[in-house]
């Protein structure tokens, strides 16, 4: 298990890999006391270098789909939600209720979808920023609403061309 830190338009990001798959992307401020294992820093790990390359291309508006091996840790329901997030196209959004419906659940499951969305350990690549409130408003985001807005703006600006 290794990690590295990269600069981005939304602040430093810590990329973590384990056994050849990305397991976490963390926003600053980093929470080192949360008990999650991260291993040792490695700024020359091939997978971390590729993840950094793809993230830089995404932020530059040159990449709309990531191609990285992912291994997020979570429950079966969280994995089902995260799988649905990957199906929200670049520059698009979906509501929590829409995600619940795609999972065959009623709108009452929107809160559970929101909790799973907030627990996503690989933001940006698993695009939890693309989930919005039913009325089109930006709702909570683990990285903060400003980061969520910036990520949506990056995608919308690029989608205009």
Short key terms for the protein model shown above:
single chain; 34% helix; Arc Repressor Mutant, subunit A; 6 strands; four-stranded mixed sheet; alpha/beta; 161 residues
Task: Please explain how this structure is put together.
The protein has helices at 46-59, 76-85, 96-102, 110-118, 145-159; strands at residues 2-6, 13-18, 21-27, 40-41, 94-95, 131-132. It is α/β, with parallel strands linked by helices and 161 residues long. It folds into two domains: 2-59, no CATH class; 76-159, Orthogonal Bundle (Arc Repressor Mutant, subunit A), CATH 1.10.10. A four-stranded mixed sheet has the order 3-2-1-4, with helices on one face. A two-stranded parallel ribbon has the order 5-6. Helix 3 packs across helix 4 (110-118).
Number of strands: 6
Cα separation of the termini:
39 Å
Shape: globular
Second-tier CATH architecture of the largest domain: Orthogonal Bundle
Averaged pLDDT: 92
Radius of gyration: 15 Å
Q: Tell me the domain tally.
A: 2
Number of helices: 5
Could you tell me the strand content as a percent range? Answer: 5-15%
Strand order of the largest sheet: 3-2-1-4
What would you call the structural class?
Answer: alpha/beta
């Amino acid at each position: 298990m290794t990690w590295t830190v990269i600069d981005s338009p939304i602040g430093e990001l810590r990329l973590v890999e384990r056994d050849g798959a990305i397991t976490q992307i963390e926003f600053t401020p980093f929470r080192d006391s949360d008990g999650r294992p991260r291993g040792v820093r490695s700024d020359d790990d091939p997978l971390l270098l590729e993840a950094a390359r793809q993230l830089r291309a995404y932020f530059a508006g040159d990449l709309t789909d990531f191609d990285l091996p992912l291994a997020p840790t979570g429950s079966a329901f969280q994995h089902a939600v995260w799988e649905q997030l990957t199906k929200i196209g670049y520059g698009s959004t979906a509501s929590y209720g829409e995600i619940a419906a795609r999972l065959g659940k009623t709108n009452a499951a929107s809160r559970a979808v929101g909790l799973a969305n907030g627990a996503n350990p690989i933001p940006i690549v698993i695009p939890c920023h693309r989930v919005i409130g039913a009325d089109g408003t930006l709702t909570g985001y683990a990285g903060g609403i400003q980061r969520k807005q910036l990520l949506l703006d990056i995608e919308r600006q690029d989608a205009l061309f």
